[in-house]
Amino acid sequence: MKACHVPLMAALAWAGWLAAAPSGQEPAKKDQARAAAPAKEYVGSDTCAGCHDEIHTNFRKNAHILLETNKRRGWEGKACESCHGPGSVHAETTSADDILSPKKMTPAAIDQMCLACHKNQQTQVGRIQSGHARNSVACTSCHNVHKTGEEASARQFRRPAGVNRNCQGCHMDVWASFQKPHRHPLPEGAMSCTGCHNPHASFLNRNMRLTSGQQPGCFQCHSNKRGPFVFEHAPVRNEPCTICHEPHGSANPRMMIRHEVANLCLECHSNIQSPPRATTAGGVAIATHDLRQPRWRNCTACHQKVHGSNVNGALLR
Questions:
Q1: pLDDT by residue (tens digit) across 100-124?
Q2: How far is the C-alpha of 226 from the C-alpha of 192, rounded, in Å?
Q3: Nearest to 166 by CA among 147, 33, 5
Q4: Once rounded to an integer, what is the mean pLDDT over residues 1-23?
Q5: Beta strands 210-211 and 215-216, pairing class
Q6: What DSSP character marks residue 293?
Q7: Among the ranges given (31-40, 58-67, 179-188), the one the predictor scored with the smallest mean pLDDT
Q8: 182: phi then psi, degrees, rounded to nearest 5
């Protein structure tokens, strides 16, 4: 009896699946309904202003208003529809489903819309591969199009304080580091986050900027540390500045990662020999550098040219 029940149950299950499966006519009906829908056409920004008068007035003070008179891009008189798409159906139905709205679009779709015009700008290098894009941070998360005055993107990002205020909305842990006693002057508005980082993407980790000669962006301000030097300190050439410094802020002077300079230097230089082999690393410190005495705990008292020297292989003053 059990063997007979198996084919019967299989047949019933197959019949139930056929009853639940959509018929082949449903896709055809959807295609017919889509074909019967009126085609969307461009109606011009003046039509949009009929209902969105306040937004239209604010938009006339926005940088994107150039599209209204730019014949080269083909959006003359249709600046609103350059982002929101053709508005003929929306103007008839006044339904939000008949117009493109960034509030309902995915971050990838928003980026694709913005990069239709901005992808060839120098600041947009690798935008799709950037950390912001990978974390679903759309362009409209930082930039706004309709707001004017102090809230306008052009006004906010023209001043360092506005840039920093926008970045700290997400990077609160980094902004907390800038409250430490030794840090770059971002809280005072003398610098901005974009001085070191390119928020639109970079070919380097953490969206770091480069300065002349493809060198780290730190040298844009600290050019005296760039060199070239006759006697180089290997970490300056081969390692990032962050191997010794905390760029966002530190409780230690000169934004060092260690409170005592000796503890930092001895992470590499624990076998200090006489010149010309004074940069050898590894082993145990020689007897003349007795770290029990305070005068030997500050390496830079003698080795002042820690970023490189033109006169002494031991980086002495």
A1: 988 889 988 888 888 888 876 665 5
A2: 22
A3: 147
A4: 49
A5: antiparallel
A6: S
A7: 31-40
A8: -120, 110
Total-model pTM:
0.73
For the stretch 56-64, contacts whose Cβ atoms lie closer than 8 Å and that sit 24 or more positions apart, written own/partner, are: 56/80, 58/146, 58/147, 58/148, 59/145, 59/146, 61/148, 61/152, 62/145, 62/146, 62/148, 62/152, 62/154, 63/154, 64/145
State the Cα–Cα distance between residues 59 and 45, nearest whole angstrom.
11
Place of tokens 């530190």: 250
Q: Is the pLDDT of residue 180 over 90?
A: yes
Hunting for tokens 């000796």 — which residue is that? Answer: 262
Q: Where are the domains of the chain?
A: 45-141, 211-317
What is d(CA 156, CA 121) in angstroms, rounded to the nearest whole number? 20
Q: What average pLDDT does this structure show over 300-309? A: 88
**Residue 216 to residues 207, 242, 258, Cα–Cα distance (Å):** 12, 11, 22
Q: Hey, what are 213's tokens?
A: 């000669």
Is residue 191 very low, low, confident or very high in pLDDT (cuts 50, 70, 90)? very high
